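Lecture notes, unit on binding sites. The following record was shown on slide 14. It pairs a sequence with copper (II) ion.
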Amino acid sequence: MKTIKITILSILALSILICTSCKRKGCTNELATNYESKAKKDDGTCEYSDAGVIVTLDHKVGADDLVFTNKFYYSAAGHEYSIETIKYVLSRVTVNSSVGDVEVFRNIYVDAEDENTLTQTSTVEVPAGDYTGITFTFGLNESDNIASVFTSSPETNMVWPDAMGGGYHFMKLEGFYDSLNTNSTLQAYNTHIGSIDGMGMAQENSWEITLNESFTVAGAHHVEFHIEMDIQEWFETPNTYDFSSWNNGTMMEMVAQTQLKENGQAGVFILEEVAMRQD
Ligand SMILES: [Cu+2]
């Protein structure tokens, strides 16, 4: 009787042992840092490494691709216009999550004509986890908009006159438009935006933009944000911006600055995609 009992017990013990080893638990996600190739059942212990951040900037004009100089676009005000230059500054680029935001860039300088500025790689990594989107400032906020923020060219070429408050242009968007009144003669437009504080005028012209999209960083080597600027939107919504309403420049035209600011806050920037890269 005793022998039978022992036999039953050892069979039981053996089967438990076999069962445990055949259903070994552990992390079953190959992208995790603690992936266990022999694990059959995931026990929720997977851990992931931090991911680098890449921001790419894409420029469109309505439905069209941006082509410099040789292409004319139609503005909502009825002008044909070309684009010769588009340079701008974004700052305090921050990836958002419910457990804490991570600033990945303090400043980004973009020249749409310079390929090197269209892909920006951060030195900061974001921890694995769930995220809700990305926030950045168009231009430089009041405390950041100081002379020492940029120290070398081409960024320093964005300098804003001291008499108008100093700091930097937030954007230079320039080209030519047809003059509806004088017919075929092309006129230059200089859409320059920056914060104004001087010559009897004051207006803060930087603003924060949040682009929401839920994503999870888990096992990606890089998380890549594809941000698009729709240049047409600077001139369209909610204000129909008319190049011919201003003289050569807009820097001292408060109404122009306000129209551009309101349009910029509306729909100029779009988050096209958040892509996870394994490389
Ligand atoms: Cu200017």
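Take-home: The mean pLDDT is 91.
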